[in-house]
Each structure stands twice: as structure tokens, then as C-alpha cells.
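Question (not urgent): is this output format expected?
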Amino acid sequence: MNLGWEGFGGAGICFLSLVYAGIGIWATEFFLKRLRLTIPAGISATFVVVLTPLAVYGAQVALGGWAEGLVYREYHTHVDWRWMMMELCTLASGAVLLWRYALPFLVMPIAVTLWYMSMDLTPFLFGQEQLTWELRQLVSLWFGLCILLLAVWVDLRTRREQDYAYWLYLFGTLAFWSGLSMIHSEHEWHRLVYLCINLVMILVGTLLSRRVFAVFGGIGVAGYLSYIAYEVFEDSVFFPFCLTAVGFGIVYLGILWQRNEGIVALRLRAFLPLQVQELVDRRR
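Got this back:
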């Protein structure tokens, strides 16, 4: 989607998007009902969902409801509250197609759109003039946490079906962990809390068999240990050796964890509710 497309005008962009969407719907029906191929059907349906913001953008431009100075190709690169209508319509179309076809890959554009909204929501709620980096971080953190709670709810509701929560876990964790990691503090105990949260994420990843928690939690722990190594051995000739030791230590802990993860997880899951145990067993 480059600037050349702007030459079609708002009505032209909207019309072309609807034509492509119609082809996507036809392809979804063809793959799903005629060929029984769920993966290409999911891709075709997702194609329709990701066309939604383009169609809405074209309609807004055609109706004169779009401000100057912002074009569609900046949708994926610029944070701006004016994308909110496009994102809400994308969520609506994704929900309708997910209800109609029940294909798990359709959750991907929904999760991405929720992630985008976590960034665009800040200027929408507080105004561009009050926008600060710290405020963005807090909104991303809490919005990501809400998406994670939604993912758990979806996981429990669909535990006997396909995996509909994967993308929600991924982008919810990304929003939560990014906001958490970018929060700057001069207090050491705040950084210690950050370490504990990342350790809890690794534990949750083990309990729920969701490695996305373990991956981001492991990166957070490694970052904290590197920070400690730098602060303790700053201006010291031993800093490279200390950092190398930290790296090897993390690898060694990973080996120990991999060898004992099954036993630890099995013991911990005994304390979980029966529904969650059933969910984890099926996901494994």
C-alpha cells in the first residue's frame, strides 16, 4: 500500500478493498466446503479481516471525514488516535468471521489489532498534548494484562476445541512485557520486582504449557542479570568475564530447567483447578 494508491481516491480504495474481500470470502468458502482445507481457508478469511482498515480508510476519505497529513501506509508505523475507527471495525469484522467459520488463525488479526489499540488508546483517552512516554508504557502494560486475562478466558471456554487463544497470549504478552520492560526506575527494589515478575512468567508458562511466557520471562531475567553484572563490575577489567559467566550460567540453568521441567510442572499442576488441568493436558 504505497502513495500510488492514493490516486484512486477514497471511493476507489474502498471499492477495490470490497472487491478483494469478496474474492477472499469466496476462496474461504471454496477451501473450507469444497476441499476441506482449513489452513488456506483460515488464510483467506484472515485476508478479508486485514482488508477492513483499508476499506474503512477509503470510506472515511470519500466521506470527507479524514484529516490531512496522515495516509494509510502509516497505519503500521505511526501511533495516532485517528486509527481507532479502523481498528474497531477490524475487530468487528474479525469477530463476525470467527463466529461464521471458527478458524483459529482468524484470532491473529484480532490480536494484532488489539495490540495496535493498546498504543493508539493513549492519545485517544488522554489527548495528544498530555501524551508522555511514561503514560504510553502504563497503558501498554495494563492493556496487555487485560488481553492476557481475555486469553485465559478464551482458553478455558474452548479447552475441548482448537487453540483459539494462542495469538491473544502472544500479543498480550508482548504488550504487557514491553510496557513493563520500558518503565524506568532509579530504585533497585523496583528492578528486583521486575525480576520477580519475569520469574513468575516463566513459572506460568510452565503451568499453562505456554512457552511465550517462558521466552519473554527468560529475556527479562537475562536482561536483569546483565544489568547487575554491569553495575557491580562497572569500570572493571573483570566486566567481560562476569558477563560471559552470566551467559553461561543462564545456559546452564536452562539445561537444568529443561531436564526437570516435566517433574516440576506435574507437581505444580496438582494445585490447579480441574478445568485448568484439563486445559493444560489437552494443549500439551
